[in-house]
Amino acid sequence: MTSKEEYLNRREFVKLLGPGLYLLFSLDDLVLAQQPGGRVGGYPEDFNAYLRIAEDGHVTCYSGKVELGQGVTASLSQMLAEELEVPYDSVSMIWGDTMLCPWDGGTNGSRSIKFFGPAMRAAGAEAREVLIQMAAEYLKLPSERLTVKDGTVFEKNNPANKVGYGALTQGKTIEKRLDKKPALKPPSAFVVCGKSLPRPDFQDKVTGKAQFAGDIRLPKMVYGKVLRPPAHGAKLKSVDTLAARAIKDAIVVQEGDFVGVVHPLPDVAEKALSLIKTEYELPASDINDRNIHQRLVDSNAKDTIVEQKGDMAQGSKMAVLKFEETYYTSYVAHAPTETHSAVADVKQDGVTMYIGTQRPFGVSEEIGRAVGLPSGKVRVITPYVGGGFGGKSQVGQAVQAARLSKMTGLPVQVTWTREEEFFNDTFQPAAAVQIKSGLDESNRMTFWDFRVLFAGDRSSQCIYSVPHLRTASRGSGFGGGPHPFPTGAWRGPGSNSNIFARESHIDAMASKAGMDPLEFRLKNLSDERMIRVIRAGADKFGWRAAKAPSGRGQAMVCLDYLGTYVAGFAEIKFDKDSGRIQVERIVHAQDMGPVINPEGARMQIEGGITMGLGYCLSEEIHFKGGEILDLDFGSYRFTRFSWTPKIETVLVENFDIAPSGCGEPPIVGMGALIANALFDATGIRIQQLPLTPERIRGKRA
Amino acid sequence: MEQTIRFRLNRRPVSVTTEGERTLLWVLRTDLGLTGTKFGCGRNQCGACTVIVDKKAIQSCQYPVKNVAGKEVLTIEGLAVNGRLHPVQKAFVEHGAVQCGFCTPGMILKSYGLLLKNARPSRDEIVAHMEDSLCRCGTYSRIFDAIQAAAVELRGGKAS
Prior knowledge:
The complex is a heterodimer.
Chain A: H1 4-9, H2 11-15, H3 30-33, E1 51-53, E2 59-63, H4 72-84, E3 91-95, H5 112-139, E4 146-149, E5 152-155, E6 158-164, H6 165-169, H7 202-207, E7 222-226, E8 235-240, H8 242-245, E9 251-255, E10 258-263, H9 266-274, E11 277-281, H10 292-298, E12 303-309, H11 312-318, E13 321-329, E14 341-347, E15 350-355, H12 360-371, E16 378-381, H13 396-408, E17 412-415, H14 418-423, E18 431-439, E19 445-453, E20 468-474, H15 495-512, H16 517-524, H17 528-541, E21 554-561, E22 564-575, E23 580-591, H18 598-617, E24 623-624, E25 627-628, E26 646-651, H19 665-668, H20 670-682, H21 693-700
Parallel strand pairs in A: 2-3, 7-17, 15-16, 19-20, 23-26
Antiparallel strand pairs in A: 1-2, 4-5, 5-6, 7-10, 8-11, 9-10, 12-20, 13-18, 14-15, 14-17, 18-19, 21-22, 22-23, 24-25
Helix pairs in contact in A: 4-5, 12-13, 15-20, 18-20
Chain B: E1 2-9, E2 12-19, H1 24-31, E3 50-53, E4 56-59, E5 72-74, H2 87-94, H3 104-117, H4 123-130, H5 140-154
Parallel strand pairs in B: 1-5
Antiparallel strand pairs in B: 1-2, 3-4, 3-5
Helix pairs in contact in B: 2-5, 3-5
């Protein structure tokens, strides 16, 4: 393997070529462009880092964002094609390869289009202008007389006088830069973006050709399994590996608490691991899923103020109706269909790693530390990733694979079992949200006092017009504090708890005020953009005003997730005998600015809603001390075919803002939406997710 | 005990010599090199490992390989013939019934298994047949549409 460092050392040689030169010799010099302004946290400025044009005109685009199923292979290619002026189907993407792709902090937070998109577009725009200048020299014409379409530069008055991008670049990187960067196209001028162009990954995904990390096979590769404790915090007291060693071709390794087996067959490696006899000492702990929320509330961690204005005492004095309530959410697993998987090939001078991850550049650093090499010596290649939802930012399986590879001298694949996937998961944190609020005689909000405990502050800001308000966040959603095991980002981190609390509370206030929940929200909102999104959704839904509970099982929410606006509407049926909620219909209106791929956006929205029903209705990790009790899909239930409602989406067109995130906003309102619909159907308000039949029955009794 | 198991795989005869109690899933993925069949849970609870054995969709993650002796096995790699997508595959693409793609081979073969025995499945029949196949990305509603569209095409394009 040639490391990035070796490539970079050759930069001196390239400088000798001198100024004025447009092309570099080496086809491998793409790597040069991946200059790590990157490593310290920014996108490279050199447009060659993002694209390469082959002699036949085919464009390869390079992205540190990875394809998790959310469709970046389409949307980012569209953004590049748009600015570069090439046909969409002439673009293909290489993603998540730390040697070839521009640095990236990770595929999370619905940030790919919003933050990486502009860098990709800028690269395309600059490359296009440079190519026009190169064409001007080639055609011996002033560049003002030229224009470009579909990757061909031609004379405006004589289109037959032309040259293609491929002939100009000859497949090489382009050395010329512009001092003044060209402006990006306004969304109103989009030709490639804004269209539902086909997803390039689907063909391979329906034929079985699409490779995930667990599908990678290297010469001499073996499969590794590592011993896991029965509970978080358990200490290994004794271990007997005799029976495992007796398995033909099994290699057993141990380094302190790290005990593993490798074997040429994965199922036999697993069997060998199961033959290892162990004794563990379990830490004394009485924490469990029933008392965790009290621990959160009792914690004496300090508040961090998120926003504050006015005077709470004054706001309280103005109120004729006052409200106080606490809302709770549970630990929720990521449970991607593909469990964590990685292949590590650790050599003395460098590591090659194939891994299903949301954070390839983070992996190169973590693995570098684990095997004692600089991160630049760890090349991470990301094949297709079988769902992430935040859970594949954590890469414990990669560390296991790298350690086993280093210890055995063989390439090692580690694919977690479903039990390991649950046990090692960084769950969405259980959380509590405390809210106090008040209304005056005209049902306007006078004060709003919001405190989130241990979920993080995303989407905690009040979206309503309130003269006196305070929003505070205590502790973090990323582990530590009273959480008995690691927690982490889960699709819409923090927001799932914060919006469940806020939109449940708003609904309760509307009901107490005797107002229709939509009218109540409109009365207390001043953000015109939000009002427009609500009206768009209400129209599609056919909302008819009524005070809740109306018995109809209809409800709404509205929210702002990192600049994307959402209004959700639902209709449910509640079965009194079983205590089960069946969601019949969801209407979802979303304003995320200009939409890059409308069909892709709809798929993300439908997916978010469908997935979100799980944490509303059933998903909850049960545990006892550090022991995780839900380790398979038998006890941990999430959305299935029979739960799936009719989903209608409204994409609210908005060219006034830049393209914004799509994939997380649809899920974060689901908790309150269904809880509010349950209230409208039955008059029962549940302040804790998930809305299980047991919890609903408990409230009815 | 090692034994030689002969069967037909994707329309071709194959034989494999291994422990007969090993699962069909891992023998397919390792010994036979066909990685389109996925490991999702190992407990018959998710359907990612679904393949067709003698025209029936089965989960292969707990299915002993010796049980396919003399039988006809179809995996996702064998569904398209001469590069032409099967109507079920085509419908999944056209209806966007795919996101991450990890459950997709199992979903497609499970759907194919339904249409082999029921050319005109109702919505309830689709739910009953597909219920134990899990998709975490949430593509179920599009899979419904894809199955119905594929059923129409397999009947010769007649909607009723």
